[in-house]
Structures are given as structure tokens and as C-alpha cells.
Amino acid sequence: MPTKTSELYLSASMIKELKDRLSRIEGHVSSIKGMLDRQENCNDILVQMSAIKAAVNQAMIKLLEGHMDVCVKGCIKQGDLDKLDEFKDAVSLVFKRS
């Protein structure tokens, strides 16, 4: 959708929220690496990995919401329907990989 030079992009608060979520995910991944180093129970590690997967999914949902609210709506208002096709392709790819 919008490029770095485009006027349409996520709000500063949305960017901060997404970066905060990603930082928490990074911390969680680091914690799991420590669990592996300490040879902790694999069942516990799997549960923690599942929590990371859920956190990534929630971050993706937030990004999708923000993207639709600003970028997709803006492109439609501007009549840039090619960008809508790009968005549909991206959403399709996300669902295929999940």
C-alpha cells in the first residue's frame, strides 16, 4: 500500500503500540532461548512458543486494523483501486501462511 514517501500511513500511536508489542515478543523469544540453554521442560517451551504465536497474531490484527482504517480507506477515497488489489493479495498470503 502506501510507500515511505506517501502521506497515508499508520498513526504515530499505532506505530508505537505495534513497536511495543514487537518488543514484548522479542523479550519473550529471548526468554525461550534461555529456557533452551537451561534445558527446561520441552512442554513448557512449547506453551511459551504458543504464547508468542498468539502475540504475533494479535500484532498482525492491530496492524491490519490500522492499515484498513488509514491506508486502505484513503486509497479508496483517492480512487487508487490498484492498491486495494495489493491489499487483497497481502491478506490472502497471510491467511495461506497461518
As a whole number of angstroms, the C-alpha radius of gyration is: 17 Å
CATH class identity: Mainly Alpha
Overall mean pLDDT: 91
Fraction of residues in helices?
A: over 70%
Structural class: mainly alpha
Number of helices: 3
Task: Give me the oligomer status.
Answer: single chain
Number of strands: 0
Count of the separate structural domains: 1
Q: Indicate the CATH architecture.
A: Up-down Bundle
Order of helices and strands: HHH
Major β-sheet annotation:
none
* Straight-line distance between termini: 21 Å
CATH superfamily: Metal-sensitive repressor, helix protomer
Uncertain stretches of 5 or more adjacent residues:
none
The fraction of residues in strands falls at under 5%
User: Which word captures the global form?
Assistant: elongated
Could you explain the architecture of this structure?
It is a single chain. The chain has one domain (12-97): Up-down Bundle (Methane Monooxygenase Hydroxylase, Chain G, domain 1), CATH 1.20.58. It is elongated, with a radius of gyration of 17 Å. Helix content is 81%, strand content 0%. The chain has 98 residues and is mostly helical. The model has no long low-confidence stretch (mean pLDDT 91). Helix 1 (12-37) runs antiparallel to helix 2. It has helices at 12-37, 42-77, 81-97. It starts with 11 loop residues before the first helix and ends with a helix.
